[in-house]
Structures are given as structure tokens and as C-alpha cells.
Specification:
Elements: H1 4-18, E1 23-28, H2 35-44, H3 58-62, E2 73-80, E3 93-94, H4 103-122, E4 127-130, H5 138-144, E5 149-150, E6 156-157, E7 165-172, H6 191-195, E8 201-203, E9 206-207, H7 213-219, E10 235-237, H8 241-244, H9 264-268, H10 271-275, H11 279-285, H12 295-306
Parallel strand pairs: 3-10
Antiparallel strand pairs: 1-2, 2-7, 4-7, 5-6, 8-9
Length: about 300
């Protein structure tokens, strides 16, 4: 006979699967002791560049009970975004996660449904949904929940499916069964460190965010520094190099979320098309995309920098 905790855990995981999540892991909502000095050190070395928001809510980032009062469990979820087709090889490059509809909307919707299911099924459960827009250390929680290990490129990795997926959480005041942490399988491999075009991976497991192509092309609002010219490897929004070269991503399988499919024009566009892109085309191709974060002017700035 399953006890209530086991029964609830089982039904939550089954519902997560039904909603299309790749996997679901659960960990106890406690202070992230190991991550605290690492985060402090990273911030002290200014590896967050101009991302001032990373300095805010230090305590909340490390303690889920400060985000959801009396929280007991962190339910971590992975959603695959690996595309079945990628861009034309003669094109400026876009990170694969940004091909389709902005993941914040897609995942938030699924998380709301999952929380609703928990409340309908189990009763009065307080909880909040998080999709990388709040001070939550997604990767740390996913690793703690047994969903994978943090690779040398600081992304979450799984043996079965690599790293091309989004991570999200529900933090709830419900006691559940917790998953065991998985082991690290990076071994002596340094493919990601060797391949990073801007040497942003300063040592295994440490990424200097302020040197990362994703930071320059998405987060940095100022002019791009001339010292970086010629190092972006044709990436105009985000960068997938450390993931593309990772041996575990040989096992990535295409997603089955229609909302993540790109606008048909996107995959066909050449460098010339991108150089001549108009506001109208930008709005059409990126109607609901995460690329809107950088705006038309930001994308143009990045493309001009690559010429």
C-alpha cells in the first residue's frame, strides 16, 4: 500500500509527464549550503557583468522558504527544446532555445496546470511556479532533484538526453518523496572548455558570464566591445557552442512541442537576408519569440558586429 507521500509523488510525476515534461524530480526545500559560497564568489569576481539583477535577493536565491512560506518541496521539471531541423549553414546563428514561442509562456502555462492538478487532487496546497524569471537557482535544484549533474560548462547534463532543455520549478508547501542525487559523468572531457569561442569557461564548472557570447548578444545593452570582434563565431543571439560539442548531446532527441517549432522563414534565411532584415520581417519571424528581448535594434547591432 502506498503511503500518502508516495501516492502524491507518483501522481504529480505522472501528470508532469502527461503535460509534456521530459522529466520531473523532487528535492527537499532547504537552504542551498554548497551554492552559497560559490554564488558569492562568482558575484565578487564580477562574473555577472552588467546583470545587476544577479546581485539582488541573494537570500531568496538560496532559500526557497523565503519565496514560498513554509515550503517543503521543490519540484523540478525539464522540457525538451531540441529542434528536428536547424538553421541554414550559411546563416548567422540563433540559439536553438529561441527558435519558437518564448519558453516563459509555454512553461508557465504547463506549470499552472500542474499546480492546479495538485490542488484539485490533494487539496489546499500553496505553491509558486518559476521559469528562470525569479531568483531561483534552477540548475542547482534540478541537480539536487536527481535530474542530472552540472557539467563543466555549468549547464545541467543527463546521460539520456544531454542538455537541450529548459528547467522550471514548482515550490510547494507539501511533503513529498525526494529523489537521490545522480553522479557526474564529465570525466576528463574538456570539449566545452576547449571550444568556447571567447574562453568564457575560465575553469571547469565556472563560467565568466561577462565573457559569454549569450551575455554580449542578449544581456549587454551597451555597445559591443571592439576587443571581442571576430570571436562570436557568427552567433547573433545566444550561443550553443558548449552544448553542441558536448558528447552527451549525441543523445538529444527532437522535442514534440508544436509551440517550439520555428517560423518557416527562420531556417531558410541566409546572412544576406539577416543583413537586410526589416522591422516588419523581425516582427513576423519573431512574433512570440524570446528574441524580442533584444529588440530589432539589438539584433541589428549584433548582426552589424558580425559583418
Amino acid at each position: 500500500m502506498l503511503n500518502n507521500k508516495a501516492k502524491h509523488t507518483k501522481s504529480i510525476k505522472a501528470e508532469a509527464k502527461r503535460l509534456g515534461f521530459m522529466s520531473c524530480g523532487i528535492s527537499k526545500a532547504t537552504f542551498l549550503e554548497k551554492e552559497a559560497p560559490r554564488l558569492e564568489n562568482w558575484l565578487n569576481q564580477n562574473m555577472h557583468g552588467t546583470m545587476q539583477y544577479m546581485e539582488n535577493h541573494f537570500d531568496k536565491r538560496l532559500d526557497p522558504t523565503k519565496l514560498v512560506e513554509d515550503s517543503k518541496s521543490v519540484i523540478s521539471l525539464l522540457l525538451n527544446y531540441y529542434p528536428s531541423k536547424t538553421q541554414n549553414t550559411e546563416s548567422y546563428k540563433l540559439s536553438k532555445y529561441a527558435y519558437g514561442t518564448d519558453y516563459h509562456f509555454v512553461i508557465k502555462d504547463k506549470l499552472k496546470q500542474l499546480l492546479q492538478f495538485i490542488q484539485d487532487e490533494i487539496g489546499e496546497v500553496a505553491g509558486r511556479a518559476f521559469v528562470d524569471s525569479a531568483p531561483v537557482l534552477d540548475k542547482a535544484w534540478a541537480a539536487k532533484s536527481g535530474l542530472g549533474w552540472i557539467g563543466k560548462h555549468s549547464n545541467l547534463l543527463t546521460q539520456q538526453t544531454g542538455s537541450f532543455y529548459f528547467i522550471a520549478e514548482l515550490i510547494v508547501d507539501l511533503d513529498l518523496e525526494y529523489d537521490a542525487i545522480t553522479t557526474n559523468h564529465c570525466g576528463t572531457c574538456t570539449a566545452c572548455i576547449d571550444a568556447c569561442p571567447t574562453q568564457a569557461i575560465t575553469e571547469p564548472y565556472v563560467v565568466d558570464g561577462s565573457k559569454c557570447i549569450s551575455y554580449f548578444t542578449i544581456e549587454l545593452k551597451d555597445q559591443l566591445p571592439n576587443s571581442m570582434k571576430g570571436t562570436f563565431d557568427d552567433w547573433m543571439f545566444g550561443c550553443d557552442v558548449c552544448q553542441d560539442v558536448c558528447p552527451w548531446n549525441r543523445f538529444s532527441k527532437p522535442h514534440n512541442e508544436p509551440l517550439f517549432n520555428p517560423h518557416p522563414d527562420l531556417l531558410e534565411m541566409t546572412k544576406k537576408d539577416w543583413q537586410e532584415i526589416t522591422q516588419e520581417t523581425f516582427s513576423k519571424v519573431f512574433k512570440k519569440s524570446a528574441v524580442k528581448r533584444t529588440k530589432f535594434s539589438g539584433l541589428q547591432r549584433n548582426i552589424n558586429f558580425l559583418k
